Amino acid sequence: QAAKFLGSDSAPYATALKFITDRGRVTEANIKDFVKQGIAAAVDAEFNKISFLLENSRTNPVRDHKAVLTYNQQNGQYTLSYEGAYTTNGHQEITASTLDALLAEMGRRKTDFDQTGINQVREQAALIPATRLNNKAISDITDILVNLYTHPTNPVAYDMVKAVYSLYQNLESRSGNDVFKKIATAYDLTLYTLNVELEKKVVQDWLKQRQAYTMLTSEQQQIFTQTVSARY
Known about the structure:
The protein contains eleven helices and four strands, in the order H-H-H-E-E-E-E-H-H-H-H-H-H-H-H. The chain has helices spanning 2-5, 11-22, 28-47, 99-108, 115-125, 129-132, 135-150, 155-175, 178-194, 196-208, 218-225; strands spanning 49-54, 65-71, 78-83, 91-96. It is an alpha+beta fold and 232 residues long.
């Protein structure tokens, strides 16, 4: 369905799905359920992490790391993955039960971090999209993407995907708020993860008409833009 929507050759996918369903092991309903689970997982993965350049104090030899901070909503754990020329053994990962525990472990790794770097991780944790958005916003974003994949011929389904993209891109540029910058990035990366060509289409269409979020009601816009205090 995604291939059809994007004007690509859908025949190989149709053949593969027919082969699977004809064997009687998987139904169309099973496939749609699998799609929903996959999209939900993609949204959770992108909205629960943040990527940044972790910079320690400039007064020391420059020790920067490319870092990804991930939050696990199921158990509250934080994981910091970091790597670079100045990283011990080139790549490291820290997982801790709380953010404070993570920062404490960073403090013990003197060769990789100083207080400047530790403070930066605390600041970045407050920008993780899933910790700042209402849970309903995440759920609604998932539902909108699922609707596109299960009803791609419905023009409203695509317009809603584009409307959310437009909303966050405009908020990022107009507000100067780092939270919305990270949310906009998470949404874009979700689209890219699901389908590179879909992400390109959304971006290109948005560039043609940057005010394309009229599909969203005032209530929906409020849900997508209302942020909460960082949850840690």
